[in-house]
Design goal:
Elements (H helix, E strand, L loop, with lengths): L23 H42 L2 E2 L7 E2 L3 H8 L1 H31 L5 H15 L2 H12 L4 H8 L11 H28 L4 H9 L4 H12 L1 H16 L3 H6 L11 H9 L5 H34 L1
Antiparallel strand pairs: 1-2
Helix pairs in contact: 1-13, 2-13, 3-7, 3-10, 3-12, 4-7, 7-10, 8-9, 10-13, 12-13
Amino acid sequence: MGLAALKVSPARTDDPPAPAPGHPGTAAVRRRRWRDGALSLGMLAPAVVVYTVMTIVPVVVALYLSLTDWNGFSDATFIGVENYTRLFEDPGISRAWVVTFVVAAFGSVGMLGLGLAYALQLKERSRTNSFFRALAYYPHVISALILGFLWSAILGTNGAINITLERFGVGPVGFLFDETLAVITLVGVIVWAGFGFNVVLFVAALQTVPHDLIEAAQIDGASRRQINRRIVIPMISPVVTVAMVLNLVGLIKVYDIVVSLTDGGPAGSTETIAYVILSRSFASTDVGFATAQAVALMVVSAVLSVLVAAMRNRQDQAAAN
């Protein structure tokens, strides 16, 4: 049989042929797509409405109020960026920002480092490790106000620690009454209260690290420290980034534990920007200025989150190359 007699049959597919333009099937396909799109929009609508009402609208209102002079009762008077100018002129506000950044930086690093070290020691599944994981997480589930009052009773001038020191002939230590020591105490209590959340994140991430890689490294003679530094930690780096962002955002707006532990003292040395907004600005009915501070706090939190994520992505790309 000659080559001319051979016929190449078209490839068979399981999909039905597309209807030609103007074919009745085209209208049916369009109606089906329209119904699917309408159904998708209908399912998304409640979430969009809730997000708009609970997030978008308050942000827009806050942006407007930050440009006004308003005491919360009378009509608001538009004054432009005057409230934002006051942010840079008030020394108390500047000091509060410095305290906020110090607490956020050292607190975030402390919670991250302590949580990671703790998780690496308790990554194996056992009843003992489960108990110590729960013990580390327990302070996180207690109200920060209660924790602050608890540590205030322990570290105060007439607290348990100073009473014990006096019995040994040591004078009282101003954990909460020395300006520098009060900031250190505040950061320490925050780290103790929050590192358990990091432990939970890291333990969950460590469970995803393949045991084959660790066993191969052990066979090659790698030490535990080398395995953690070169294999384990790089593999859970995305979770480390998430933990750092959550720590920073949470501590940038810390307020409750400041109120119950130091109440901003001594001499305003532990006043954070959130404390100033809620305790000073709103109390003086200067709502416009307080809202401007809140907007600035929101912007700083967003910028820090983006910067941390960008730095982490750049490091990951450099490691991949």
